[in-house]
Amino acid sequence: MNNSVGNTARLIGAGLRALLVLTVICGVIYPLAVTGVAQALFHDKANGSEIKDKSGRVVGSSLIGQTYNLPKQARSDSTTGDDAEEAAKPDLKWFQPRPSNGLGTNSVNTRYSLVLSGATNRAGDNEDLITWVTAAKAAVVADNSTTTYKVEPQDVPAEAVTSSGSGLDPHISPAYAELQVHRVAEKNGLDVEQVEKLVKDHTEGRQLGFMGEPRVNVLELNTALRALSEN
After folding, report:
1. Is the separation of the CB atoms in 164 and 121 below 8 Å?
2. Does residue 75 carry a pLDDT above 80?
3. Angle 181-188/127-144 helices, nearest 10 degrees?
4. Separation of first and last alpha carbons in the chain
């Protein structure tokens, strides 16, 4: 009887010691070691790939797409007299990202106006998707045509009218960025050549020279645009 109690006590003691040791190793030492290595070798990525403006304020992450819309405007319905809100419209002084139709918008962290993650899950012949794409294409043509530059429907890239699989794609193609240059230059009072250079400077090539496609990070481009327009 005494031996049985003693053995049980020793097993419990060994288990508690193992629990304590493993807790220290796995719950304290290992996380601190991983965090230390990440901060030392991958500081930017470990902190969320933050993008800062020239004042040092964090304006977002290079990995997450944002919307660039004007605030919603209150209006009165002439037929019912009720107050309502007009849909938010793109702020055309900024380069616009891919659309996020059907995904909704973030309602928690409104400071950065992040779009929600997810796909529209519509088939190519879905009526809603066809309506969205048709309307988006017409809007891209109308919004980006200026007095000196005319956008043709065939010039509109596919990603200008379709959302990405995640809805959070922070990039657009150089073609879509270049299509927006004249409008952005006009809205910000800049020379077209200045804005073209801005796009060129922020165009990333294929990863390792062969993976993916050339791309432009919209948030990084707009952050540089803001700095240029404020000079």
Report:
1. no
2. no
3. 50
4. 87
